[in-house]
Amino acid sequence: MIEPIRELLSDILGREMPPLTPETPFEALPGWDSVAHLAILMEAERRFGAALTAAQMVGMKTVGDLLAALGGKP
């Protein structure tokens, strides 16, 4: 389930992503910043047909947080 997230991150951040685990913090990703974080979440909503709340977006710190918020859709 992580591979679609890895592809999304590569697309948004414009870089090849290292192997990811649910514990991978967004801050550790090459090219990540707060603006990219918002772009990642908006694209995740679009690609996976999800609707994230503001509270989910603010609290999202890891790849696992994104997976949980998407309800395992990817």
Give an account of the 3D structure.
The protein has a single domain, classed as ACP-like (Non-ribosomal Peptide Synthetase Peptidyl Carrier Protein, Chain A). The protein is 54% helix and 0% strand. The protein has helices spanning 2-13, 34-48, 54-59, 63-69. The termini are close together.
Task: Please render the helix and strand layout as text.
Blueprint: H1 2-13, H2 34-48, H3 54-59, H4 63-69
Write the CATH fold name: Non-ribosomal Peptide Synthetase Peptidyl Carrier Protein, Chain A
The helix/strand series, from N terminus to C terminus, equals: HHHH
Number of strands: 0
Rg, please? Answer: 11 Å
Largest sheet: none
Distance between the termini: 5 Å
Helical segment tally?
Answer: 4
Query: What is the averaged pLDDT score?
Result: 93
CATH superfamily: ACP-like
Proportion of residues in β-strands: under 5%
Structural class: mainly alpha
